[in-house]
Amino acid sequence: MDRRARTYRGALALLLAGGILMTGCGGSGTSNDSASAERGVAGNGGPAGGKQPPAAPSAAPGQDEDGASQAEDGAARESVAPDYLSTFALDVDTASYGYARRTLGDGQLPAADTVRPEEFVNSFRQGYERPEGNGFAVSVDGARSDAADWSLVRVGLATKAASDTGERPPAALTFVVDISGSMSEPGRLDLAKTSLGILADELRDDDSVSLVTFSDEAETRLPMTRLQGNRTKVRDAIEEMEPADSTNVAAGVERGYEEAVEGHRKGANNRVVLLSDALANTGETDADAILERIGDARKEYGITLFGVGVGSDYGDELMERLTNKGDGNTTYIADETQARKVFVDQLPAHVELRARDAKAQVAFDRKTVQQFELIGYENRKVADDDFRDDSVDGGEVGPGHTVTALYAVRLRKGASGHVATATVRWLDPKTRKAHEETGSVETGAIGGKLWDGAGARLQVTAVAAYFADTLRGGDLPGTPALGELATRARKLASSTEDSSVEKLATAIEQADRIKNGGGDEPPGDQGEGELG
After folding, report:
1. Best CA proximity match to 24, nearest among 440, 366, 465, 509
2. Which of 148, 28, 20 is closest to 412 using CA atoms?
3. Integer Rg of the chain from CA
4. DSSP per residue, 60-99
5. 402 bridge partner residues
6. Which of 24, 123, 363, 490 sits 20 to 30 Å CA-CA off 438?
7. Alpha carbon separation from 64 to 45, 58, 68, 77 (Å, rounded)
8. Could you give the CA distance from residue 264 to residue 255 in angstroms, rounded to a whole number?
9. In this model, does residue 41 exceed pLDDT 80?
10. Residue 5: pLDDT over 60
11. Is the pLDDT of residue 498 over 50?
12. Among 69, 67, 62, 143, which residue's Cα sits nearest to residue 384?
């Protein structure tokens, strides 16, 4: 197998689309774009990051407990520099948050292993500045948490929004729809059909679609067909879908990619769209093995996978791994309102690309930072040495997307100066030329109190991250109790006039009630948050 396959097995899989911004908020924010850069990341290093959910933060590798470096000379320091880096693939997934809201609305807490904090955070608008061109705008800011010596540092990336004129390359979309028996329940196949009907109305005449269904076997219902003059034919194929037997996801995905290759259009956005509850019970059920079968189609033709999850019982792990390793992203829809958000409001972001194989690397400065931990992204990590290896997959990012990486950072007492430098690297979707953009942050930009003076959007980000960490049993420094988080979310919903923040407050209240044994309330709109 090639290096990409080895990387999937050896490191935690990388992922999709997302991003990194950095607004200097009082610090010295810098920006630098370098095509095909070969230099190392700037910065003096810093503590190593990342932790599994239940683990407590620890001193960086190569450091004593107080954070002092064990290296004594320049050469030794050079050898431990990667220990001070945090490297991950960008991710624009939001399914974890959408599914958590659905589960809470049904009166249950989500399983801890389905809670991914980065997907909670990335479900909300961030208000980042966007670039003028097709690259990324990078910004970094932060604030002090309620825990002594600990701050939150927000790193994010934003792409330019889609053109107001609606101009974009044509799309060639292969829909792969689960029609197994489990999809017969309300809110599954019926919602998938509604969603595809909405999408068929939104696509342009020069777009093309094909339709594959699967239960115990896969079947092509419609070969790749231009929309112009064929909308009735497409709608009829959608309406004729009825639930059948078992769930053979592997057969559906494999047939879907065969159709996508057969109908591949040069210069178009070629994508497979999988709509399923992902409860595979027939055939191959392992994501890696499923994608192994269609590896050549992904590599040679650049076909990406967009997963749309449905159902109160939902195979979150399978869908997420499929899309992560299928160069795509995943979302979750619970009703027609959310379907319209995904397939109408967010359509360009789901069918176009601004960047391929996007990765981020954050270098913390050991002179000012004693410890740090990346909140989430456990299965998005990339080996530090692979940051500039463009054969290693990163995330695919569309127009109008933002991705945020939130860090808990413990500063050294009395520290002043540079805190971190963040770099994002991506490939141009057309030319495959590598580009980089950087940003940095100083202690002055993260010195204000989080709940007293920080911007509303940073506070929303913190509430979402703390909420997710609580649901999965984490122990982030400075995490408020659920009741306090709900109160803060309510105030933020009022100040921002953002309905998605209002829904966040409701979800936190539901979790608090369930944890304390309180009664359930009727579920409301369970759709996920907004595109950043």
Report:
1. 440
2. 148
3. 22
4. PTTB-TT--B---SHHHHHHHGGGGEEEEE-----HHHHH
5. 158
6. 123
7. 15, 10, 5, 14
8. 14
9. no
10. no
11. yes
12. 62
CA of 105: how far to CAs of 247, 470, 478, 522, in Å?
Answer: 26, 17, 27, 7
| Three-class secondary structure of residue 523 per DSSP | coil
Is residue 2 predicted with pLDDT exceeding 50?
Answer: no
Place of tokens 């999850």: 309
- Res 430 pLDDT > 50: yes
Strand 304-309, strand 355-364: pairing? unpaired
| Per-residue buried b or exposed e for 39-74, using 16+ beta carbons within 10 Å of the residue's own CB | eebebbbbbbbbbebeeebebbebbeeebebebeee
Instruction: Return all residues near 373 (Cβ < 8 A) that are at least 6 apart.
Output: 49, 50, 51, 57, 407, 408, 476
Instruction: Determine how many CB atoms are found less than 10 A away from the CB of residue 244.
Output: 19
Where do we find the tokens 């431990």? Answer: 80
SS3 assignment for 362-426: EEECCCCEEEEEECCCHHHECCHHHCCCCCCCCEEECCCCEEEEEEEEEECCCCCCEEEEEEEEE
- The mean pLDDT of 505-511, rounded to a whole number, is 98
DSSP 192-255: HHHHHHHHHHHS-TT-EEEEEEESSSEEEEEEEEESTTTHHHHHHHHHT----S---HHHHHHH
- Confidence tier at 353 by pLDDT (50, 70, 90): confident
Give the pair of three-digit tokens for residue 410: 């413990």
Q: Which of 93, 39, 14, 132 is nearest to 393 (CA)?
A: 14
Which whole-number Å values give the CA distances from 385 to 37, 327, 360, 428, in the listed order? 14, 21, 12, 21
Indicate if the pLDDT at residue 52 is higher than 50: no
> How far is 200 from 196, CA to CA, in rounded Å?
6
What are the phi and psi torsion angles at 177 (to 5°)? Answer: -115, 130
pTM: 0.81
Number of Cβ within 10 Å of residue 3's Cβ equals 12
